[in-house]
Amino acid sequence: MALRLIIADDDALARALIEAIVERDTELELVGSAEDAKRAIELAVEHQPDVAVLDWVMPGGGGELAAREILLCSPDTRIVALTSPETTSADVAVARTCLVKGSPPEELLRTIRAAAADG
Questions:
Q1: Which of 48, 59, 53 is nearest to 22 (CA)?
Q2: Which of 5, 13, 69, 82 has the fewest Cβ atoms within 10 Å of its own Cβ atom?
């Protein structure tokens, strides 16, 4: 069974690139894509994904707010924080897993699988 995930990033190009990478992988199913924290939370409520890939800095409260709310409504969802190189692990503690934006596609896929296995 495919891992179900949502992604949220306010950068349309970054979101499209992540979508393309995920959609090429037959072990992953993209069930939703959002441009802000509010929509990410709505998608999580609706789809109860295995993994949520969240841009940590985006409108509507950012990835941290989205992660906290997603974990309340979908506690089994694993969070992957998309961060900048300057972000510290303390900044993304709620996520437990983070990935620097611009990482190679293979690293994105590895990180999603590792986050899902961390359940």
A1: 53
A2: 13
β-pairing verdict for 3-8 and 96-100? unpaired
Pair of tokens at residue 86? 């300057």
Helix, strand counts (H, E) of the chain: 4, 5
Q: What are the b/e assignments for 36-66, b being 16+ CB within 10 Å?
A: bbbbbbebbeebbbbbbbbbbbbebbbbbbb
In Å, what is the CA distance from 75 to each residue of 24, 52, 64, 69, 103?
A: 27, 11, 15, 9, 27
The string of pLDDT tens digits covering residues 54-78 is 999 888 888 889 999 999 999 999 9
pTM above 0.85, yes or no: yes
